[in-house]
Amino acid sequence: MTGNSTISLFGILYIMELEKLFKEYYRPLCLYALRFTLDADAAEDIVQECFTALLSHQADKPVPYLYASVRNRSLMWLRSRKPMEELPEDLPMEDAIDRSMEDARLWEAVEKLPLQRRKCLVMSKRDGMSYADIATELGISQNTVRNNISKALDTLRHTLPASLNFILLFF
Amino acid sequence: MKQSFDFVLTHFKDGVFDWKKGYHSVCGQKPRTFRIMPWLYAAAAVALAAFIFVRYENHTARYLAYDTAQSFTLPDGSRVILKPGSELSLMPRRNPRSVELTGTALFSVVKDPQRPFTVKTDVSYTKVLGTVFHIAGSRLDVFEGKVLFCNAGNPEGIVVSAGESASISEGEPLKDAQAPNPAVWATGKFVYEDTPMETVLEELSAFFDTKLYCQDSGKRLTAEFAAGSSLEDIIGLIETALDVTITIEK
Questions:
Q1: Looking at the whole model, is its pTM more than 0.90?
Q2: Which of B122, B180, B118 is nearest to B149 (CA)?
Q3: Is residue B157's pLDDT more than 60?
């Protein structure tokens, strides 16, 4: 392929390993950081800094290293912003990893929704807009908004583990 | 869980948290193996499948007689007896009725008009139309049915019928007289029916690798001897039966 054409077998294995790490943990780490920062861009910056640090440190156990370092940097970022505030609730690392995976799965499911349905869902749940406001904003009827949201929730219900279905029924 | 759902929906933002973009900004290049690997796997799988297929198709069955005559049933049901030191091979997947022979063998071929049975040696190519026959080097003896006998590499040939023999001489298939027991090594007995003494002695001389003479060569013999008998016993029996004297030249 183009670019670095001379690359050793170990080089290839290393890159494969690194890519696997990105593929599996990049988004969960972002969501882990987001739990602290509540700011998507800040969260993503923090995760990228941590991966960059990993490249120069060669940690033996990259996953715990990444989670620990994302946590530390997120807390640092929080302190620099709001020095007086209390620290957010802190989970043991294993639980934090599980929760970030769960968050990432949900995030991806929302991302994969058809555009119109996603817009309706996000405007309603994130921005707290009324059906009437959404209908005006998107130039569609209120009925369509309601339909879109219920279909979106339906899709999410099918992409999630069974334990979540129960909760979504009451959503 | 519910908390997870609220959290994600409350903070959802389009187009962020993409691992490929993250990889690009951290490593300064796009993920590469992600694009190479499917190709590599597909190519490897195809190569492996082709290799296995070719190995399977070209699988060669070998039959070998080492120091005693061996009898085998071939995949198509035909029987073959191999003389010691002879070897037969065939590719069951390609054509189980196309065999290659090195040495000497007696065949009893299952009839199948749709699929001729063929035997290839260094010098000859024999196409069988259903029968019992014997191949020894360049020589062919047919006992039942008939076969097409050709020079190796030339599909034109001669039809050799039951009781006839042929051999390749100077690159051409030619008929000649059949000895009474050409496949005695496989059948295990000499059978003579009103056979001229001359022919009997010729065959016994060849079999026991010696030279036999009889002054009274006009007589004819009808007898049966086991191939395992000693030359002296056989000669003794013939001398008594026909009242002749046979001399052995060492």
A1: no
A2: B118
A3: yes
B56 or A134: which leads in pLDDT: A134
User: How distant is the Cα of B26 from the closest Cα of chain A, in angstroms?
Assistant: 6
Confidence of residue A168 (pLDDT cuts 50, 70, 90): low
**Which ipTM score applies to this complex?**
0.82
Q: Which residues of A touch B30 (CB under 8 A)?
A: none
Nearest to A19 among B6, B18, B23 (CB): B23
- Find out whether A30 and A49 touch, Cβ atoms under 8 Å: no
- DSSP assignment, residue B83? P
Cβ partners under 8 Å of residue A99, min gap 6: A32, A35, A91, B4
Q: Return the DSSP state at B88.
A: E
C-alpha–C-alpha distance, residues A30 and A48, integer Å:
9
Q: What mean pLDDT is predicted for residues A46-57? A: 90
The 8-class DSSP code of residue B16 comes to -
Q: In Å, how far is B44's CA from the nearest CA of chain A?
A: 17
* DSSP secondary structure letters along B188-240: -EEEEEEEEHHHHHHHHHHHHTSEEEES-TT-EEEEEEETTS-HHHHHHHHHH
Q: Which residues of B touch A40 (CB under 8 A)?
A: 11, 13, 16-17
Q: Is B68 on the interface with A (CB under 8 A)?
A: no
Collapsing DSSP to helix, strand or coil, A119 comes out as helix
Q: B184 φ, ψ to 5°?
A: -60, -30
Residue B127 corresponds to which tokens in the numbers above? Answer: 């196409």
Segment 44-83 of chain A within 8 Å of chain B by CB? 44, 47-48, 51-52, 55
The H or E element that residue B106 is part of is: strand B104-108
